[in-house]
Amino acid sequence: MARFRNRKKKVFVKPIVKKKQEQQQQPNVDPITGNKIPKSFVFSRGKLPGPLRQLQMDLRKLMLPYTALKLKEKKRNNLKDFLNVAGPMGVTHFLILSKTETSPFLRVAKTPQGPTLTFKIHEYSLAVDIAQSQLRPRCPQDLFKNSPLIVLSGFATGDEHLKLTTTLFKNIFPDIDINTVKLSSCQRIVLLNYNKDTKLIDFRHYSIRLQPVGVSRRIRKFVQNHQVPDLRNLQDVSDFVTKSGYGSESEADEEAATVTLTSDLSRVNRASTKSAVKLQEIGPRMTLQLIKVEGGLCSGEVMFSEYGNGGYKKKPDGQEDSEKDNEMEGSDDDNEEEDSDEDIEENEEDDEED
Amino acid sequence: MMMVEEGSVPGKRKRNLGKKKGNKPKNKKLKMLEGKGKKLRVSKKMRNLFEKRARDYNSDDEEEAEEEEEAALDDIRMGGGGDDSSDENEGEEAEDDEIQPGIMRFTEGVRAFRLAFKNIIKRSVADDSLGPVLSGHKQLVAKKLAEEEAERKVKGEAKKEKHLVAEKGHVKPANYLDSREKFLIGIATKGVVKLFNAVNKAQKAQKGLDPSRSKDAKMIRKRRKEAFFSELGKPSLTAHDSSSKGNKSSDPRNDDGPAWAPLRDNYMLTNPKLKSWDKMADSAVADDVGRMSEDSVGNSVFANHEEVSRTRSFTSNTVIILTEEPFAGSSSLVGLQMVRTQLKAPLVLDSCWFEQIYQIPSKHCHVSMPNVALVHFSYISQRHGKSRARTPIEGESQER
């Protein structure tokens, strides 16, 4: 043993890693727009099976950077505990996964007062599954450094609960100010597409990539990769530029998906060049169905119930919320009052569709 | 007698072998001792002692081995004699030919083993599903086995079911993009393109201008103001207000304040900024604002809140100035200050969007309101101040 010790003169010292202060220093208020930055907790109620736990992790990654990636929950933690923590930490949204015999559920709630939307997860695929299905999964390093954009489409039917869904999901991510936002920080996008016929919401998560248009793949790769290109099969250096190889056939039909940049985005995407917007899915993927809207945080009056005949006129039957009889009457009054001054016409989803 | 001699030969050989074997560990021991000796410094005397001990130890082994060998030889001799003499002779001959006495015994051993093996093989076994079972309780064994099998089956099924429940809804995506996914990607792409174009358009205007320089900042503000006015001039303001901005991501300013209370972004939430309004000092902005107000006051229209809320359409050169009692007079310094500090960004104040706050110099001040606000109100709630009663302004406006 002594000899062994002598031979190893260098003793490995674990480098002292400075504790990251960023987590504590995350601002509550956006420095530019002055708006409050929404933050979120993603956690589960009850015990989740393996794939759902993975889904929870994926959702946390999706909600980055304003979420608790390593949120530890214990069996005895109840909703109140999370709520108590949420206040001081400035957490504004809860995403709660749960599981019953029939299917998994996702609840999206605003803290501390609600409302709460309950979604039934009809189908879901994890980020891992998505990556496995792709030939070249893409994950740049700073993909999760900025919060994603959100696109809501098909919600413009005028129903109250859909409007609520729109608002809630719009406000789940920080606002962007188009005067100051950097395009390089827009790396991801979350899409929620409402299907009118099936009443299902498709939840997708894509990464955004910009590619210069009209540049052959070979040259693009050359500029991107810093690598010496393979010139074995070429007669002359000029062939490298002139021989365009095979062009991407998808480029032609994506004329609509091009943007003209005003500022340099990266080495390949320069100002005043046209760039094509390419999306690649990063998962998770979910098919949701809005089942219930509650006024409070996982409690309170039921404003909408899929199975309860609209929720406003009748109280929901059979559901796990057989209480709140008195509150239903009160809410009816509220609704009438609110209907009178309800004249919201605009819906951005309209123009996204056409 | 030949046998004895032959026997003795292998015996000797064995002994030699044994000696060799004996030597080996001795050597090992010595080596080990040497290895240790470097550290422990064993004296020569001690070493001798160790060696002697080792030799004794090995010699003992040898003797034992010898005895065993002799016994084994006797056995073989006896067995060989009992079996067959001709075989023995053959063995002898073969042995003589090759002069390898060890092999003879080997063949003998094989023969015995072969006989035994043949015997076992020849025995007929009852045809049974279980195969040969030594136990007397064949039925019991069969029962147990069947039970085990059933148990395993049940367990497997339960596990499968549990797995199915856990995996419910979990779908592995296809390797290719089907039409639905393509459609979804198309929607998302459209959204991204729209946003990027809007951002580019907005940032092109302020390109080359440094917002930190006051001159440029003024320019930027002017341009934004122009954009704002041009938006005001649009015919159907309320319908296309936010779509023209092209900002599809969450932006509460563009949301017309929904009527339904829980729909509102600030539903039952107090703005944390409001708590520290008095701590933020902002004088530069007020200066700029004061200068800018000079030109815009000329064609402005004073309106109080009730009037404004009824108005729905504007012409391009109309500037609506909202007069709120909390702003007027010296008693409302609190409210004024608050608005001014939030001037950095257009502020959402109960679904009214204050684009600019103009400080009117006292000579222009006909009414007792030194400060007015230009309001962009695509929508004004009639339930004004109902949901947020905690902010100082609303507290006062409710009294009114």
Using brief descriptors, characterize the structure shown:
heterodimer; A: 354 residues; alpha+beta; Rossmann fold; 11-stranded mixed beta sheet; 10 helices; 11 strands; disordered C terminus; B: 400 residues; 5-stranded mixed beta sheet; 60% helix; disordered N terminus
Task: Describe the SSE topology.
The complex is a heterodimer of chains A (354) and B (400).
Chain A lengths: L1 H6 L14 H4 L14 E5 L5 H14 L15 H11 L3 E7 L4 E7 L5 E10 L1 H7 L15 E5 L6 H11 L17 E8 L4 E13 L4 H9 L11 H6 L15 E3 L13 E8 L3 E10 L7 E4 L19 H16 L7 H6 L1
Parallel strand pairs in A: 1-2, 5-6
Antiparallel strand pairs in A: 2-3, 3-4, 4-10, 6-7, 7-9, 7-10, 8-9, 10-11
Chain B lengths: L1 H39 L3 H40 L1 H14 L2 H22 L15 H29 L12 H27 L8 H19 L4 H9 L26 H4 L8 H13 L3 E5 H6 L8 E5 L9 H9 L5 E3 L2 E8 L11 E6 L15 H8 L1
Parallel strand pairs in B: 1-2
Antiparallel strand pairs in B: 2-5, 3-4, 4-5
Give an overview in words.
The complex is a heterodimer of chains A (354) and B (400). Chain A is α+β, with helices and mostly antiparallel strands and 354 residues long. Chain A has a domain of 245 residues: Rossmann fold (3-Layer(aba) Sandwich). Chain A has ten helices and eleven strands. In chain A, strands 1, 2, 3, 4, 5, 6, 7, 8, 9, 10 and 11 form an eleven-stranded mixed sheet that branches. The longest helix of chain A has 16 residues. The C terminus of chain A is likely disordered. With 400 residues, chain B is an alpha+beta fold. Among the domains of chain B are: 76 residues; 145 residues, no CATH class. Chain B has 13 helices and five strands. Chain B has a five-stranded mixed sheet with strand order 1-2-5-4-3, with helices on both faces. The N terminus and C terminus of chain B are likely disordered. At the A-B interface, helix 3, strand 4, helix 5, strand 5 and helix 6 of A face helix 6 and helix 8 of B.
